[in-house]
Protein backbone atom coordinates (compact mmCIF):
# COMPACT_ATOMS: atom_id res chain seq x y z
CA UNK A 1 0.00 0.00 0.00
CA UNK A 2 1.25 3.50 -0.87
CA UNK A 3 0.33 6.49 1.28
CA UNK A 4 0.92 10.13 0.34
CA UNK A 5 0.31 13.41 2.05
CA UNK A 6 -0.76 16.54 0.19
CA UNK A 7 -0.95 20.11 1.46
CA UNK A 8 -3.15 22.24 -0.80
CA UNK A 9 -5.29 25.34 -0.69
CA UNK A 10 -8.54 23.36 -0.88
CA UNK A 11 -9.64 19.73 -1.21
CA UNK A 12 -10.70 19.98 -4.91
CA UNK A 13 -7.14 21.02 -5.73
CA UNK A 14 -5.82 17.71 -4.35
CA UNK A 15 -8.19 15.43 -6.26
CA UNK A 16 -6.47 15.64 -9.69
CA UNK A 17 -3.08 15.19 -8.01
CA UNK A 18 -4.30 12.05 -6.25
CA UNK A 19 -5.81 10.63 -9.46
CA UNK A 20 -2.67 11.37 -11.48
CA UNK A 21 -0.20 9.96 -8.96
CA UNK A 22 -2.11 7.20 -7.17
CA UNK A 23 -4.74 6.23 -9.72
CA UNK A 24 -8.52 5.98 -9.78
CA UNK A 25 -8.63 3.40 -6.97
CA UNK A 26 -7.00 5.72 -4.42
CA UNK A 27 -8.91 6.42 -1.25
CA UNK A 28 -8.78 9.51 0.99
CA UNK A 29 -8.02 8.45 4.54
CA UNK A 30 -8.23 11.85 6.21
CA UNK A 31 -8.47 15.61 5.65
CA UNK A 32 -7.52 18.38 8.07
CA UNK A 33 -7.17 22.15 8.04
CA UNK A 34 -3.69 23.28 9.11
CA UNK A 35 -1.63 26.50 9.16
CA UNK A 36 1.77 26.88 7.54
CA UNK A 37 4.33 29.62 8.01
CA UNK A 38 3.73 32.72 10.04
CA UNK A 39 5.43 33.94 13.18
CA UNK A 40 5.25 32.05 16.49
CA UNK A 41 2.30 30.08 15.22
CA UNK A 42 0.39 33.20 14.13
CA UNK A 43 -0.39 34.74 10.76
CA UNK A 44 0.11 31.40 9.03
CA UNK A 45 -1.70 30.53 5.84
CA UNK A 46 -4.59 28.13 6.07
CA UNK A 47 -4.02 24.95 4.09
CA UNK A 48 -5.79 21.63 3.75
CA UNK A 49 -3.88 18.46 4.54
CA UNK A 50 -5.04 15.40 2.62
CA UNK A 51 -3.89 11.83 3.37
CA UNK A 52 -4.53 9.45 0.45
CA UNK A 53 -3.63 5.82 -0.15
CA UNK A 54 -3.81 3.15 -2.82
CA UNK A 55 -3.06 -0.55 -2.83
CA UNK A 56 0.22 -1.54 -4.39
CA UNK A 57 -0.07 -3.12 -7.81
CA UNK A 58 -1.84 -0.52 -9.90
CA UNK A 59 -5.38 0.66 -10.35
CA UNK A 60 -6.95 -2.74 -10.85
CA UNK A 61 -8.72 -4.19 -7.86
CA UNK A 62 -6.58 -6.59 -5.92
CA UNK A 63 -7.74 -10.19 -5.99
CA UNK A 64 -8.47 -11.83 -2.64
CA UNK A 65 -5.55 -13.93 -1.47
CA UNK A 66 -5.85 -17.66 -2.00
CA UNK A 67 -6.57 -19.76 1.06
CA UNK A 68 -3.27 -20.66 2.72
CA UNK A 69 -2.21 -24.25 2.09
CA UNK A 70 -0.80 -24.68 5.59
CA UNK A 71 -1.55 -23.11 8.93
CA UNK A 72 1.92 -21.56 9.04
CA UNK A 73 1.21 -19.92 5.70
CA UNK A 74 -2.15 -18.86 7.07
CA UNK A 75 -0.46 -17.22 10.02
CA UNK A 76 1.85 -15.32 7.69
CA UNK A 77 -1.20 -14.12 5.77
CA UNK A 78 -3.02 -13.26 8.96
CA UNK A 79 -0.16 -11.06 10.09
CA UNK A 80 0.03 -9.16 6.81
CA UNK A 81 -1.05 -6.14 8.79
CA UNK A 82 1.85 -5.80 11.19
CA UNK A 83 3.20 -3.25 13.64
CA UNK A 84 5.23 -1.81 10.73
CA UNK A 85 1.96 -0.30 9.55
CA UNK A 86 1.65 1.55 12.81
CA UNK A 87 5.30 2.62 12.56
CA UNK A 88 4.62 4.06 9.13
CA UNK A 89 1.69 6.05 10.43
CA UNK A 90 3.74 7.21 13.42
CA UNK A 91 6.48 8.37 11.02
CA UNK A 92 3.93 10.39 9.10
CA UNK A 93 2.67 11.90 12.35
CA UNK A 94 6.22 12.75 13.45
CA UNK A 95 6.91 14.65 10.25
CA UNK A 96 3.72 16.61 10.72
CA UNK A 97 4.61 17.52 14.29
CA UNK A 98 8.10 18.56 13.21
CA UNK A 99 6.50 20.85 10.66
CA UNK A 100 4.41 22.42 13.41
CA UNK A 101 7.49 23.05 15.53
CA UNK A 102 9.24 24.80 12.66
CA UNK A 103 6.17 26.94 12.09
CA UNK A 104 6.62 28.45 15.56
CA UNK A 105 9.88 30.13 14.48
CA UNK A 106 10.27 32.91 11.88
CA UNK A 107 10.34 31.26 8.49
CA UNK A 108 10.04 32.12 4.85
CA UNK A 109 6.66 31.74 3.28
CA UNK A 110 6.21 28.25 1.94
CA UNK A 111 4.90 27.53 -1.53
CA UNK A 112 1.17 26.99 -1.95
CA UNK A 113 1.81 24.01 -4.16
CA UNK A 114 1.40 20.46 -2.85
CA UNK A 115 4.01 19.22 -0.40
CA UNK A 116 4.54 15.55 -1.04
CA UNK A 117 5.82 13.14 1.57
CA UNK A 118 8.09 10.32 0.36
CA UNK A 119 6.26 7.12 -0.47
CA UNK A 120 5.93 4.62 2.36
CA UNK A 121 5.75 0.88 1.93
CA UNK A 122 2.85 -0.36 4.02
CA UNK A 123 1.91 -4.06 4.17
CA UNK A 124 -0.59 -5.01 1.49
CA UNK A 125 -4.27 -5.21 2.51
CA UNK A 126 -6.81 -7.42 0.78
CA UNK A 127 -9.64 -5.92 -1.23
CA UNK A 128 -12.04 -6.62 1.63
CA UNK A 129 -9.92 -4.69 4.12
CA UNK A 130 -9.53 -1.86 1.62
CA UNK A 131 -13.31 -1.70 1.42
CA UNK A 132 -13.51 -1.52 5.20
CA UNK A 133 -10.98 1.27 5.14
CA UNK A 134 -13.39 3.30 3.05
CA UNK A 135 -16.14 2.83 5.62
CA UNK A 136 -14.28 2.45 8.94
CA UNK A 137 -11.93 5.42 8.67
CA UNK A 138 -14.09 8.50 8.97
CA UNK A 139 -13.24 11.47 6.85
CA UNK A 140 -13.40 14.53 9.06
CA UNK A 141 -14.49 17.82 7.51
CA UNK A 142 -12.21 20.84 7.73
CA UNK A 143 -12.93 22.94 10.83
CA UNK A 144 -14.69 26.24 10.43
CA UNK A 145 -12.55 29.37 10.58
CA UNK A 146 -12.13 30.68 14.09
CA UNK A 147 -11.82 27.23 15.69
CA UNK A 148 -8.67 26.21 17.51
CA UNK A 149 -5.95 24.96 15.26
CA UNK A 150 -4.89 21.36 15.04
CA UNK A 151 -3.07 20.17 18.16
CA UNK A 152 -0.97 17.22 19.15
CA UNK A 153 -3.73 15.54 21.18
CA UNK A 154 -5.97 15.34 18.13
CA UNK A 155 -3.14 13.88 16.09
CA UNK A 156 -2.42 11.23 18.71
CA UNK A 157 -6.12 10.39 18.90
CA UNK A 158 -6.22 9.82 15.15
CA UNK A 159 -3.14 7.58 15.31
CA UNK A 160 -4.78 5.62 18.13
CA UNK A 161 -7.98 5.17 16.11
CA UNK A 162 -6.04 3.99 13.08
CA UNK A 163 -4.06 1.56 15.25
CA UNK A 164 -7.31 0.07 16.57
CA UNK A 165 -8.59 -0.29 13.03
CA UNK A 166 -5.41 -2.12 12.01
CA UNK A 167 -5.72 -4.45 15.01
CA UNK A 168 -9.33 -5.23 14.04
CA UNK A 169 -8.26 -6.02 10.49
CA UNK A 170 -5.46 -8.26 11.77
CA UNK A 171 -7.82 -10.19 14.07
CA UNK A 172 -10.31 -10.63 11.25
CA UNK A 173 -7.63 -12.10 9.03
CA UNK A 174 -6.49 -14.42 11.82
CA UNK A 175 -10.03 -15.74 12.21
CA UNK A 176 -10.24 -16.38 8.47
CA UNK A 177 -6.95 -18.30 8.60
CA UNK A 178 -7.84 -20.41 11.67
CA UNK A 179 -8.39 -24.13 11.00
CA UNK A 180 -12.00 -25.27 11.32
CA UNK A 181 -11.32 -27.58 14.28
CA UNK A 182 -9.66 -24.80 16.29
CA UNK A 183 -12.44 -22.38 15.37
CA UNK A 184 -14.98 -24.98 16.57
CA UNK A 185 -13.13 -25.15 19.91
CA UNK A 186 -13.16 -21.36 20.18
CA UNK A 187 -16.91 -21.25 19.45
CA UNK A 188 -17.52 -23.91 22.10
CA UNK A 189 -15.64 -21.91 24.74
CA UNK A 190 -17.64 -18.76 24.02
CA UNK A 191 -20.86 -20.79 24.05
CA UNK A 192 -19.89 -21.99 27.54
CA UNK A 193 -19.45 -18.32 28.54
CA UNK A 194 -15.70 -18.58 29.02
CA UNK A 195 -14.30 -15.05 29.05
CA UNK A 196 -12.64 -14.08 25.80
CA UNK A 197 -9.33 -13.50 27.59
CA UNK A 198 -9.11 -17.13 28.69
CA UNK A 199 -10.57 -18.47 25.45
CA UNK A 200 -7.88 -16.62 23.47
CA UNK A 201 -5.15 -17.85 25.79
CA UNK A 202 -6.33 -21.46 25.54
CA UNK A 203 -6.48 -21.30 21.73
CA UNK A 204 -2.99 -19.80 21.65
CA UNK A 205 -1.54 -22.57 23.84
CA UNK A 206 -3.34 -25.29 21.88
CA UNK A 207 -1.92 -23.94 18.62
CA UNK A 208 1.56 -23.77 20.13
CA UNK A 209 1.38 -27.41 21.25
CA UNK A 210 0.05 -28.60 17.90
CA UNK A 211 2.72 -26.64 16.06
CA UNK A 212 5.47 -28.06 18.31
CA UNK A 213 4.19 -31.55 17.49
CA UNK A 214 4.29 -30.77 13.77
CA UNK A 215 0.53 -31.12 13.41
CA UNK A 216 -0.02 -27.68 11.94
CA UNK A 217 2.38 -28.15 9.03
CA UNK A 218 0.07 -30.45 7.11
CA UNK A 219 -2.10 -29.02 4.32
CA UNK A 220 -4.99 -31.25 5.39
CA UNK A 221 -7.50 -30.18 8.02
CA UNK A 222 -6.45 -30.55 11.65
CA UNK A 223 -8.27 -33.45 13.30
CA UNK A 224 -10.87 -32.21 15.80
CA UNK A 225 -10.21 -35.08 18.21
CA UNK A 226 -6.57 -34.00 18.47
CA UNK A 227 -7.58 -30.37 19.07
CA UNK A 228 -10.08 -31.38 21.80
CA UNK A 229 -7.56 -33.67 23.45
CA UNK A 230 -4.92 -30.93 23.47
CA UNK A 231 -7.39 -28.42 24.91
CA UNK A 232 -8.42 -30.90 27.62
CA UNK A 233 -4.78 -31.49 28.59
CA UNK A 234 -4.13 -27.74 28.75
CA UNK A 235 -7.19 -27.04 30.90
CA UNK A 236 -6.23 -29.80 33.32
CA UNK A 237 -2.81 -28.17 33.69
CA UNK A 238 -4.52 -24.86 34.47
CA UNK A 239 -6.97 -26.29 37.01
CA UNK A 240 -4.62 -28.69 38.77
CA UNK A 241 -3.59 -26.07 41.33
CA UNK A 242 -7.21 -25.13 42.09
CA UNK A 243 -8.46 -28.54 43.23
CA UNK A 244 -8.96 -28.19 47.00
CA UNK A 245 -10.27 -31.64 47.90
CA UNK A 246 -13.08 -32.75 50.20
CA UNK A 247 -13.70 -31.80 53.82
CA UNK A 248 -10.68 -32.78 55.88
CA UNK A 249 -11.04 -34.93 59.00
CA UNK A 250 -9.17 -32.18 60.88
CA UNK A 251 -11.71 -29.50 60.00
CA UNK A 252 -13.90 -28.50 62.94
CA UNK A 253 -15.85 -25.50 61.61
CA UNK A 254 -17.18 -24.69 58.13
CA UNK A 255 -18.91 -21.37 57.47
CA UNK A 256 -21.18 -20.90 54.45
CA UNK A 257 -21.48 -17.41 52.97
CA UNK A 258 -23.00 -16.16 49.75
CA UNK A 259 -25.80 -14.17 48.12
CA UNK A 260 -29.49 -14.77 48.77
CA UNK A 261 -31.08 -17.80 47.14
CA UNK A 262 -27.95 -19.63 46.01
CA UNK A 263 -28.72 -22.73 48.14
CA UNK A 264 -26.51 -22.38 51.22
CA UNK A 265 -28.90 -24.10 53.64
CA UNK A 266 -29.60 -27.02 51.30
CA UNK A 267 -25.88 -27.47 50.67
CA UNK A 268 -25.24 -27.56 54.42
CA UNK A 269 -27.85 -30.31 54.80
CA UNK A 270 -26.23 -32.37 52.01
CA UNK A 271 -22.72 -32.12 53.44
CA UNK A 272 -23.92 -32.66 57.02
CA UNK A 273 -25.69 -35.85 55.93
CA UNK A 274 -22.53 -37.02 54.19
CA UNK A 275 -20.39 -36.36 57.27
CA UNK A 276 -22.93 -37.93 59.62
CA UNK A 277 -23.92 -41.01 57.63
CA UNK A 278 -20.72 -41.77 55.73
CA UNK A 279 -17.90 -40.33 57.85
CA UNK A 280 -19.65 -41.02 61.18
CA UNK A 281 -18.80 -37.61 62.64
CA UNK A 282 -20.81 -35.75 65.29
CA UNK A 283 -22.22 -32.68 63.59
CA UNK A 284 -23.81 -29.48 64.90
CA UNK A 285 -25.57 -26.51 63.24
CA UNK A 286 -25.34 -22.76 63.90
CA UNK A 287 -27.36 -20.23 61.94
CA UNK A 288 -27.25 -16.44 61.92
CA UNK A 289 -29.78 -16.20 59.07
CA UNK A 290 -32.54 -14.41 60.95
CA UNK A 291 -33.35 -12.04 58.06
CA UNK A 292 -35.11 -14.49 55.77
CA UNK A 293 -38.57 -15.71 56.71
CA UNK A 294 -38.57 -19.40 57.77
CA UNK A 295 -34.79 -19.66 57.25
CA UNK A 296 -34.27 -20.96 60.80
CA UNK A 297 -37.21 -23.37 60.43
CA UNK A 298 -35.69 -24.81 57.26
CA UNK A 299 -32.38 -25.61 58.95
CA UNK A 300 -34.21 -26.84 62.09
CA UNK A 301 -36.08 -29.33 59.90
CA UNK A 302 -32.82 -30.71 58.57
CA UNK A 303 -31.37 -30.78 62.09
CA UNK A 304 -34.36 -32.84 63.29
CA UNK A 305 -34.05 -35.30 60.41
CA UNK A 306 -30.31 -35.78 61.02
CA UNK A 307 -30.70 -35.64 64.80
CA UNK A 308 -28.13 -32.89 65.29
CA UNK A 309 -28.29 -29.82 67.62
CA UNK A 310 -28.99 -26.31 66.27
CA UNK A 311 -28.00 -22.96 67.78
CA UNK A 312 -29.39 -19.61 66.58
CA UNK A 313 -27.37 -16.38 66.94
CA UNK A 314 -28.66 -12.85 66.47
CA UNK A 315 -25.41 -10.89 66.84
CA UNK A 316 -21.64 -11.45 66.75
CA UNK A 317 -21.55 -11.41 70.56
CA UNK A 318 -23.67 -14.59 70.66
CA UNK A 319 -21.40 -16.61 68.36
CA UNK A 320 -19.01 -17.58 71.16
CA UNK A 321 -21.96 -18.83 73.26
CA UNK A 322 -23.20 -20.98 70.38
CA UNK A 323 -19.82 -22.58 69.84
CA UNK A 324 -19.55 -23.22 73.57
CA UNK A 325 -22.86 -25.08 73.47
CA UNK A 326 -21.56 -27.27 70.62
CA UNK A 327 -18.04 -27.84 71.90
CA UNK A 328 -18.56 -31.60 72.02
CA UNK A 329 -19.43 -31.69 68.32
CA UNK A 330 -16.64 -32.83 65.94
CA UNK A 331 -17.78 -30.67 63.04
CA UNK A 332 -19.94 -27.52 63.11
CA UNK A 333 -21.68 -26.10 60.02
CA UNK A 334 -22.53 -22.42 60.31
CA UNK A 335 -25.15 -20.87 58.03
CA UNK A 336 -25.14 -17.10 57.42
CA UNK A 337 -27.69 -14.72 55.97
CA UNK A 338 -27.72 -14.10 52.25
CA UNK A 339 -27.14 -10.42 51.52
CA UNK A 340 -26.12 -8.20 48.63
CA UNK A 341 -22.45 -9.03 48.90
CA UNK A 342 -21.56 -6.72 46.06
CA UNK A 343 -21.72 -4.21 48.90
CA UNK A 344 -18.48 -4.40 50.90
CA UNK A 345 -20.29 -3.32 54.07
CA UNK A 346 -22.33 -6.53 54.15
CA UNK A 347 -19.21 -8.58 53.43
CA UNK A 348 -17.46 -6.96 56.38
CA UNK A 349 -20.52 -7.58 58.57
CA UNK A 350 -20.70 -11.31 57.84
CA UNK A 351 -16.93 -11.65 58.19
CA UNK A 352 -17.23 -10.49 61.80
CA UNK A 353 -19.20 -13.69 62.53
CA UNK A 354 -16.59 -16.08 61.17
CA UNK A 355 -14.14 -18.03 63.29
CA UNK A 356 -10.47 -17.99 62.38
CA UNK A 357 -7.84 -20.65 62.80
CA UNK A 358 -6.28 -23.56 60.97
CA UNK A 359 -9.27 -25.86 61.68
CA UNK A 360 -11.92 -23.42 60.39
CA UNK A 361 -12.89 -23.06 56.73
CA UNK A 362 -15.27 -20.82 54.81
CA UNK A 363 -17.13 -21.84 51.66
CA UNK A 364 -18.40 -19.11 49.36
CA UNK A 365 -21.59 -20.48 47.78
CA UNK A 366 -22.41 -19.30 44.25
CA UNK A 367 -25.10 -20.35 41.81
CA UNK A 368 -24.04 -21.21 38.27
CA UNK A 369 -27.27 -19.62 37.03
CA UNK A 370 -26.08 -16.18 38.19
CA UNK A 371 -24.47 -13.50 36.08
CA UNK A 372 -20.71 -13.81 35.90
CA UNK A 373 -20.23 -10.07 36.41
CA UNK A 374 -22.12 -10.23 39.71
CA UNK A 375 -20.31 -13.39 40.82
CA UNK A 376 -16.98 -11.77 40.02
CA UNK A 377 -17.78 -8.72 42.14
CA UNK A 378 -18.86 -10.87 45.09
CA UNK A 379 -15.74 -13.05 44.76
CA UNK A 380 -13.51 -9.99 44.69
CA UNK A 381 -15.07 -8.60 47.88
CA UNK A 382 -14.69 -11.88 49.79
CA UNK A 383 -11.15 -12.43 48.48
CA UNK A 384 -10.10 -9.40 50.53
CA UNK A 385 -10.76 -11.52 53.63
CA UNK A 386 -8.86 -14.53 52.33
CA UNK A 387 -11.96 -16.51 51.33
CA UNK A 388 -11.07 -18.48 48.22
CA UNK A 389 -12.96 -21.79 48.46
CA UNK A 390 -16.25 -21.97 46.59
CA UNK A 391 -19.18 -24.37 46.40
CA UNK A 392 -21.15 -24.09 43.16
CA UNK A 393 -24.86 -24.89 43.08
CA UNK A 394 -27.63 -25.37 40.48
CA UNK A 395 -25.41 -26.97 37.86
CA UNK A 396 -28.49 -28.88 36.70
CA UNK A 397 -30.24 -25.59 35.84
CA UNK A 398 -27.71 -24.39 33.26
CA UNK A 399 -25.74 -25.66 30.29
CA UNK A 400 -22.93 -23.09 30.60
CA UNK A 401 -20.10 -23.86 33.00
CA UNK A 402 -17.51 -21.26 31.99
CA UNK A 403 -17.93 -19.24 35.20
CA UNK A 404 -16.02 -21.88 37.18
CA UNK A 405 -12.97 -21.47 34.94
CA UNK A 406 -13.30 -17.68 34.82
CA UNK A 407 -13.44 -17.28 38.61
CA UNK A 408 -10.56 -19.68 39.15
CA UNK A 409 -8.32 -17.87 36.67
CA UNK A 410 -9.30 -14.31 37.59
CA UNK A 411 -9.78 -14.53 41.37
CA UNK A 412 -8.04 -17.77 42.33
CA UNK A 413 -11.28 -19.35 43.60
CA UNK A 414 -10.80 -23.03 44.40
CA UNK A 415 -13.90 -25.15 43.66
CA UNK A 416 -14.74 -27.61 46.46
CA UNK A 417 -18.13 -29.13 45.65
CA UNK A 418 -20.65 -29.00 42.82
CA UNK A 419 -24.36 -29.28 43.66
CA UNK A 420 -26.67 -30.39 40.84
CA UNK A 421 -30.14 -30.90 42.34
CA UNK A 422 -32.41 -30.59 45.37
CA UNK A 423 -32.18 -34.16 46.68
CA UNK A 424 -30.54 -34.44 50.11
CA UNK A 425 -27.95 -35.87 50.50
CA UNK A 426 -27.33 -37.19 46.98
CA UNK A 427 -27.12 -34.26 44.56
CA UNK A 428 -23.66 -32.99 45.47
CA UNK A 429 -20.15 -34.18 44.60
CA UNK A 430 -16.56 -33.06 45.14
CA UNK A 431 -15.14 -30.97 42.30
CA UNK A 432 -13.02 -33.02 39.93
CA UNK A 433 -11.11 -31.14 37.25
CA UNK A 434 -11.28 -34.00 34.74
CA UNK A 435 -15.06 -34.27 35.03
CA UNK A 436 -15.47 -30.51 34.80
CA UNK A 437 -13.27 -30.16 31.70
CA UNK A 438 -15.22 -32.94 30.01
CA UNK A 439 -18.48 -31.09 30.71
CA UNK A 440 -17.02 -27.77 29.59
CA UNK A 441 -15.66 -28.98 26.24
CA UNK A 442 -18.31 -31.56 25.48
CA UNK A 443 -17.76 -34.17 22.79
CA UNK A 444 -15.71 -33.41 19.69
CA UNK A 445 -17.96 -33.44 16.63
TrEMBL record:
<keyword id="KW-0653">Protein transport</keyword>
<keyword id="KW-0547">Nucleotide-binding</keyword>
<keyword id="KW-0966">Cell projection</keyword>
<keyword id="KW-0969">Cilium</keyword>
<dbReference type="InterPro" id="IPR027417">
    <property type="entry name" value="P-loop_NTPase"/>
</dbReference>
<dbReference type="GO" id="GO:0005886">
    <property type="term" value="C:plasma membrane"/>
</dbReference>
<keyword id="KW-0813">Transport</keyword>
<keyword id="KW-0282">Flagellum</keyword>
<keyword id="KW-0472">Membrane</keyword>
<dbReference type="GO" id="GO:0015031">
    <property type="term" value="P:protein transport"/>
</dbReference>
<dbReference type="GO" id="GO:0005525">
    <property type="term" value="F:GTP binding"/>
</dbReference>
<dbReference type="InterPro" id="IPR003593">
    <property type="entry name" value="AAA+_ATPase"/>
</dbReference>
<comment type="similarity">
    <text>Belongs to the GTP-binding SRP family.</text>
</comment>
<keyword id="KW-0342">GTP-binding</keyword>
<keyword id="KW-1006">Bacterial flagellum protein export</keyword>
<dbReference type="GO" id="GO:0003924">
    <property type="term" value="F:GTPase activity"/>
</dbReference>
<dbReference type="GO" id="GO:0006614">
    <property type="term" value="P:SRP-dependent cotranslational protein targeting to membrane"/>
</dbReference>
<feature type="domain" description="AAA+ ATPase">
    <location>
        <begin position="250"/>
        <end position="397"/>
    </location>
</feature>
<dbReference type="InterPro" id="IPR020006">
    <property type="entry name" value="FlhF"/>
</dbReference>
<dbReference type="InterPro" id="IPR000897">
    <property type="entry name" value="SRP54_GTPase_dom"/>
</dbReference>
<dbReference type="InterPro" id="IPR047040">
    <property type="entry name" value="FlhF__GTPase_dom"/>
</dbReference>
<protein>
    <recommendedName>
        <fullName>Flagellar biosynthesis protein FlhF</fullName>
    </recommendedName>
</protein>
<comment type="function">
    <text>Necessary for flagellar biosynthesis. May be involved in translocation of the flagellum.</text>
</comment>
<dbReference type="Pfam" id="PF00448">
    <property type="entry name" value="SRP54"/>
</dbReference>
<keyword id="KW-1005">Bacterial flagellum biogenesis</keyword>
<feature type="domain" description="SRP54-type proteins GTP-binding">
    <location>
        <begin position="251"/>
        <end position="442"/>
    </location>
</feature>
<dbReference type="GO" id="GO:0044781">
    <property type="term" value="P:bacterial-type flagellum organization"/>
</dbReference>
<keyword id="KW-1003">Cell membrane</keyword>
<dbReference type="GO" id="GO:0005047">
    <property type="term" value="F:signal recognition particle binding"/>
</dbReference>
Amino acid sequence: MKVKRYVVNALPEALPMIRNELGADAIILNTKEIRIGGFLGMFGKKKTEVIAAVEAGGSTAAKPPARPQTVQAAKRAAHAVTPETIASIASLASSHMAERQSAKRPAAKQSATALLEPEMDVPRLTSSTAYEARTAVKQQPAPESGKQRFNEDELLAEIRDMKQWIVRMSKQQQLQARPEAIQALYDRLLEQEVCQTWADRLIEQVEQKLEAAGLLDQPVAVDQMIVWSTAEQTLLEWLKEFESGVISSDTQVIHFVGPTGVGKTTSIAKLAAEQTLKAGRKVGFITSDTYRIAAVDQLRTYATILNVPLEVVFSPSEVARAFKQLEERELIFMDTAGRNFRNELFVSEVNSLLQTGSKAETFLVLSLTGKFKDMSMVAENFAKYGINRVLYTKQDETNAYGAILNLAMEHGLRPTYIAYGQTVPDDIAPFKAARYVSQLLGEAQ
